[in-house]
Each structure stands twice: as C-alpha cells, then as structure tokens.
Specification:
- Pathway: Amino-sugar metabolism; N-acetylneuraminate biosynthesis.
- It catalyses: an N-acyl-D-mannosamine + ATP = an N-acyl-D-mannosamine 6-phosphate + ADP + H(+); UDP-N-acetyl-alpha-D-glucosamine + H2O = aldehydo-N-acetyl-D-mannosamine + UDP + H(+).
- This protein has 737 residues and is an alpha/beta fold.
- The protein folds into four domains: 190 residues, 3-Layer(aba) Sandwich (Rossmann fold), CATH 3.40.50; 161 residues, Glycogen Phosphorylase B (Rossmann fold, 3-Layer(aba) Sandwich), CATH 3.40.50.2000; 130 residues, ATPase, nucleotide binding domain (Nucleotidyltransferase, domain 5); 171 residues, ATPase, nucleotide binding domain (Nucleotidyltransferase, domain 5), CATH 3.30.420.
- It is built from 25 helices and 26 strands.
- The strands form five sheets. Strands 3-2-1-4-5-6-7 form a seven-stranded parallel beta sheet, sandwiched between helices. It has a six-stranded parallel beta sheet with strand order 10-9-8-11-12-13, covered by helices on one side. Strands 16-15-14-17-21 form a five-stranded mixed beta sheet, with helices on both faces.
- Helix 4 packs parallel to helix 5 and helix 21 crosses helix 22.
- The longest helix has 25 residues.
- It starts with a helix and ends in a 5-residue tail after the last helix.
C-alpha cells in the first residue's frame, strides 16, 4: 500500500512538472439543479480543500435560479462557495419546446463565460438538458470535460443525453462496474475512465449518526415518528408526458388512500412539470393535513428524511441510487429509471391503470427495513476523483481517441455494400477454355461465361477484356458489386506484379505477359493474378476443406498436375514464384518423359495427358476396349476411356492407373516429409480415382509421424474460379494475402 501511495505521489509530481511547476489546474464546476449539486458538492469541497493543486470556479444556471424551484443557488452560497457566474437559461413553459429553447439560450450565454474563465477542465454531471448545453459549449471551445455518472442506463430522453455527453467528454467518472463496461463498449478509452463510486455516497454513509428527529419534525410535524412517513418525489417523463401525468394522479390517489404523513417534493423543470403541479393543486395536496408539499429540501436534510422514512415513492434516481445506502424501502414508478442497477429495497411498478396497484405496493413496502446497499459507492469517491484530476496531463492532445472494436469481415456501413452483394470477377485461363464468372462473397457462382481459349496472345487478351466488360455490366443487373478481378492461369506467375513469367505448353504465346495493367485500365478495378494451383489452394482456404486449417496442401489432378501449399494460413510462393510445382516432383529416375523436359515427374504418370497417352498406346495395340465398351471412329481416345476400361476389368488399364496412383502417392509422401501439412486435399476430375491409392502409399512408405495426415477429396465444384475470386475477396475484406 505504501509503495502504491508513493508511486501515485511520484506520478502526480511528474504531471505537475509536465503542466508547469506553478500551474494549478483551473477547474470549472457548473451546476444546474438541486439534484446535480448533491453529487457535485462533495467534489467541490475536495477541490476547495487543496488550493495548492486547484483553482475552483463555480457557474450556476438552470433551475437553481428559479423561485418556483426554491432558488436553490442559495444553498451553494450557504456552503461558502463563491459563485463566479449566474446564468438565467430556463425558458418558462415546461414543455418540449421550452426545453429546446433553454438549451439554445444556454449555448448563447456560455461562450462568453468560458472565454472569461478559460478553465483547464469543466466538470459536468449527469443527463440533464442543461448539462448537454454545458458539454457542447466546452467541447466546441476546446475545453476538457470530466463527466460524472456516465455509462448508466435509465429510461426517457435522459439516456440519450447522457450518452451524448459521454461522446463529448474527455474523461469519465462512473459509479458502478456495469457503467464502466458500458463506457468501454461505447469505445471510450479505458485509461480515461475512473470507477470511483457516486460522490454523494461520501456524505450518505456518514450521515445517519447526526441528529435527525429535529429535521423530521421541521418538515413533517411534531407528531411524526421515524419509519412512519413517506417521501414522494416524482418527475415528468419527457418522452410520454401524458402517461406520466396520469401515473402521478394515481400515485397521489394511492397516497391519500394510504393515509400516512407524506412529504411531497415539487417535480423538476422538465416538460410536463407544470401540469404535474396543477394536478397537485387540483387534488388539494398543499392543504391536505397528511401532506407537506415543498419546492426544495437541502441535501443534508433530505438525506436524513429518506434514511428514516417508512418508504420513498416516485421515479427519481435518488430512490434507486442514494436511498439504497440506508435500506429504506422504495417504490419506483414507471419507466424513468428502467435499466438502473438497484438493491433489493426497490419494488418496481412499471405501469398502473388504477391506484390499486400502487396502493398494494405501498402496503408491501411501507415500514420494512432492507440491508444497506453499496452498489453505487463505498464513501471514498472524492479522494479517487481528486487523484484522477491531478493525473491529467494538459500537454496530452485534446482530440479524443475512440477505441473501436475490430470490424468483422464482410461488414460495411457503405450503402452500396448493404444493398448489393460483394462479389469478384474470376477469370480461369485453361488449356482449352477461357472462363469468366461473377462470384459472391459466399462462393456462389452468380453468372458464368465460357469461350474457347484463342491460340494467340492478342486474341486471348482481347477476349479476356471483352468477357470481363460484359460480366461487369451484367453484375449491375444481378445486384452484385464487383470489388476486383482475380485471374487463375497455368504457368509461373509473379503475383506481386500481375505478370505471367512463363507458361506451360498447353497455353501458347503466354510468357512475360502483363495481365494486371490492361485489365485494370479497362475496368478501373484492382486486378490479382496467380498460378492455377495456388488458386485452388486459396479456394480451399476460403470455401473448402482448408478453411481454418493452418497447414495444408492442395493437389490438382487434371490435364496436368499442380497444387498449392498453405503454411501458417498463408500461401507459399517461393523466391522465384516456383513453389508448389508439385506435378514436377520426380518419383522415378527413368520414368516417362514429362512436358517440362524432365523424366519421371508425377505429371508424366498421373496427369490426364499421361493417362491419355497410355490409353492411346493400348488402343493402338487393340488392348483398350473390353466387353461393354464402344468407340466411334472419329472419337478421340482420352483418359476417360482408360478409366472406363479399368472399371470393366481391363487388367492393363488397371495396372496403368495403379502405377499412376502410386506415383502420385510417392509425390505426396515427399510433400509430407518436406512441409509436414496436417491435411492433403486432392482436387480435379481424377481425385476420386486416386484417393485410395494415395492413402495406401502413405501407409506403406511414409514415416510414422506423418501417417496420420488426413487425405480428402475436394468438395468444390470449380476450384479454379473460386480461387481466382478468393484472390479478390480475401484482400478487399482485409485478409492478408
């Protein structure tokens, strides 16, 4: 404890040095009504008691200066505070328009006062419309604001005003843990939030030992005993004035019927207050022998009155906050305090259509004694607040910083994003076909276009541009917003520059081709380009079996053999963009020749081209067709014929497929021993034919530590297009690629 006290003193000393050794913090406390003064007064006394650190200026405005509400500024003078400025800001009328005009009048008068005072910080309390005018003026004049009691929840317009002041304030003093969490949820800086408790509790928890009988007799009569009277305090609900007046009528009827001595305080200056006073006079409350109607009770005396009352009734925040410190029973009426934290002493009557419900509540609550509650404070709020004030560094930037939570993927407040489906244009350049598709964020292919892939560079690029322009135009009709273009192509690709460095023999005139520039210029969209194997891996990562998997490998088994490696959730490209050329892993030194010029590559055994080659050899030797198969004269022999023959019992075809499966399996074993993935995904038209053979080879040839790897067949219908789309969708939704 001593250590932390010394640390605190050291920090305060450092702050004083930063702010200037002789500079005292000039604090302006602005009070608007009797309720907020009860919370601000303990802080003001604390500030006044430390003149070596603070200079105090007091500004009084609002209902303090109105005779109908007791001219409560006098209690500030009685507390020996010098009032620097009195501002008459209340426009009489007690309706919604008068409240707005009062805020406007305060905004007109406050700038001159603040210019003269030039405070370092202004302390504002609560959720009243006057406080909103104070906070607005101070914020616009670059004066730091300390807001007391932010983060709480209640009913009526007060909630909105309180949270608006929170957004304007630079520092926050809250009373409960829940209020602190609400402020954090509202993106306020945790370092500028102090959980201090309610300042009024510093008085409350030491008040009950004082002489209280003389106070009770002064306000309620000589014959009144403790726990045998009621305190009533009810205010209008500005969002439903008509209903709140009706509720007040029912409350008075219930109190008359209950027949106990009752102290009734006049309502506040909010819209509807005047009508409530009329109701009191209509029912003769001011002249009724059981009632004492008063405009104001000094806070010290009010504490004694509620501490020893048989019950408090109404909708004042005092009932659900301060009164809990004494365990006095409370009946909270209506919605004005909905959401406030309360002790077990509070009984809620949310709605009442007759006096009976309120009367029954009085019968249940009157005279009880509940355990004292310290939800709103422990009596040490003021020392914490003063320490907090001393820690404020005036050299820190005045501009507030909000601590926004991370924004989830796919969420945007842009109206286009809300009304349209975020999508990508995906382009797949295959050896035979050129395909363009509109792909949604969820991986749905909304529209697809297919053309034969031209043989020359010029024709191919012109067709890509034509198909992309058509697809982009069509996207508007299908309510899709195109975020960019992703291109999947065979060969070696530099994805950073969007250039095809070197293509396969399947795509002619396709080396050293800049795809990004012409397409981006034509469509005015960002363009990403990558190898088709890498795109297949990206498709799996976003839409397939690889979703959420840290390390996995995708193998494409189609016309050629390709693939992609994802390590620690990221795609591996390699130093010269040649990583994951999995089809060219050599599994035999004297195997068949591959299109790459080498021998014994996986692709030379297991690709569609390799199987077609072997099928032609069998066909030329009349060893392909078996019973149940037939071919037309002009029909081209393909890998499909070899697979069909094997299924029908052709042992030669079975042997070829077995060898191809073994070659692919050996390649996978090499991959397992090199990058040790947790998942291998087989993709492409031949995947189902190879999956069991690959698993068998792993069981026979792999080290025991990698034999547990999962080998699955892709469930994606079009991995090339989905992978091209994921190039766009991952990047534009803030995923690292």
């Amino acid at each position: 404890e001593v250590y932390f006290k010394n640390l605190s003193k050291q920090k305060q000393k450092e702050v004083m040095e930063k702010n200037g050794n002789n500079h005292k913090l000039r604090v302006c406390v602005a009070t608007c009504n009797r309720a907020d003064y009860s919370k601000l007064a303990p802080i003001m006394f604390g500030i006044k008691a430390e003149p070596q650190f603070f200079e105090l200026d007091v500004v009084v405005l609002g209902s303090h200066l109105i005779d109908d509400y007791g001219n409560t500024y006098r209690m500030i003078e009685q507390d020996d505070f010098d009032i620097h400025t009195r501002l008459h800001t209340i426009v009489r009328g007690e309706d919604e328009a008068a409240m707005v005009e009062s805020v406007g009048l305060a905004l007109v008068k406050l700038p001159d006062v603040l210019n003269r005072l030039k405070p370092d910080i202004m302390i504002v309390h609560g959720d009243r419309f006057d406080a909103l005018a104070l906070a607005t003026s101070a914020a616009l004049m670059n004066i730091r604001i300390l807001h007391i009691e932010g983060g709480e929840v209640s009913g009526t317009i007060d909630d909105s005003i309180r949270h608006a002041i929170t957004k304007l304030a630079h520092y926050h003093v809250c009373c409960t843990r829940s209020a602190e969490q609400h402020l954090i949820a509202m993106c306020e800086d945790h370092d500028r939030i102090l959980l201090a408790g309610c300042p009024s509790y510093d008085k409350l928890l030491s008040a009950k030992n004082k002489d209280y009988m003389s106070i009770i007799r002064m306000w309620l009569g000589e014959d009144v005993k403790t726990r045998d009277y009621i305190v009533a305090l009810q205010h209008p609900v500005t969002t439903d004035i008509k209903h709140s007046i009706k509720m007040f009528e029912l409350t008075l009827d219930a109190l008359i019927s209950f027949n106990k001595r009752t102290l009734v305080l006049f309502p506040n200056v909010d819209a509807g207050g005047k009508e409530m006073v009329r109701v009191m006079r209509k029912k003769g409350i001011e002249h009724h022998p059981n009632f004492r109607a008063v405009k104001h009770v000094p806070f010290d005396q009010f504490i004694q009155l509620v501490a020893h009352a048989g019950c408090m009734i109404g909708n004042s925040s005092c009932g659900v906050r301060e009164v809990g410190a004494f365990g006095t029973p409370v009946i909270n009426l209506g919605t004005r305090q909905t959401g406030r934290e309360t002790g077990e002493n509070v009984l809620h009557v949310r709605d009442a259509d007759t006096q009976d419900k309120i009367l029954h509540a009085l019968q249940l609550q009157f005279g009880k004694q509940y355990p004292c509650s310290k939800i709103y404070g422990d009596g040490n709020a003021v020392p914490r607040i003063l320490k907090f004030l001393k820690s404020i560094d005036l050299k820190e930037p005045l501009q507030k910083k909000f601590c926004f939570p991370p924004v989830k993927d796919n969420i945007s407040q842009d109206i286009d994003h809300i009304l349209e489906t975020q999508s990508a244009l995906a382009v797949d350049l295959g050896g035979t076909n050129l395909r363009v598709a509109i792909v949604s964020m969820k991986g749905e292919i909304v529209k697809k276009y297919t053309q034969l892939n031209p043989k020359t560079y010029e024709d191919r690029l012109a067709l890509i541009l034509k198909m992309c322009v058509e697809a982009a135009s069509e996207a508007v009709n299908v309510n899709c917003r195109i975020l960019g273009v992703g291109i999947s192509t065979g060969g070696r690709v530099n994805p950073r520059e969007g250039i095809v460095l070197h293509s396969t023999k399947l795509i002619q005139e396709w080396s050293s081709v800049d795809l990004r520039t012409p397409i981006s210029d034509a469509l005015h969209l960002p363009v990403w380009v990558d190898n088709d194997g890498n795109c297949a891996a990206l498709a799996e990562r976003k839409f397939g079996h690889g979703k959420g998997i840290e390390n996995f490998v995708t193998l494409i088994t189609g016309t050629g053999i390709g693939g992609g490696i994802v390590h620690q959730h990221e795609l591996i490209h390699g130093s010269s963009f040649c990583a994951a050329e999995l089809g060219h892993i050599v599994v035999s030194l004297d195997g068949p020749e591959c299109l790459c010029g080498s021998q014994g590559c996986i692709e030379a055994y297991a690709s569609g081209i390799a199987l077609q080659r072997e099928a032609k050899k069998l066909h030329d030797d009349d060893l392909l067709l078996v019973e149940g198969m037939s071919m037309k004269e002009e029909e081209i022999v393909s890998a499909a014929h070899l697979i069909q023959a094997a299924k029908l019992g052709n042992t030669k075809a079975e042997s070829i497929l077995r060898t191809a499966g073994t070659a692919l399996g050996l390649g996978v074993v090499n991959i397992l021993h090199t990058v040790n993935p947790s998942l291998v995904i087989l993709s492409g038209v031949l995947a189902n034919h190879y999956v069991n053979a690959v698993k068998d080879v792993i069981n026979r040839q792999a080290l025991s530590s990698v034999k547990t790897v999962d080998v699955v067949v892709s469930n994606l219908a079009d991995p090339a297009l989905l992978g091209a789309a994921s190039l766009v969708l991952d990047y534009t939704t803030r995923r690292i690629y």
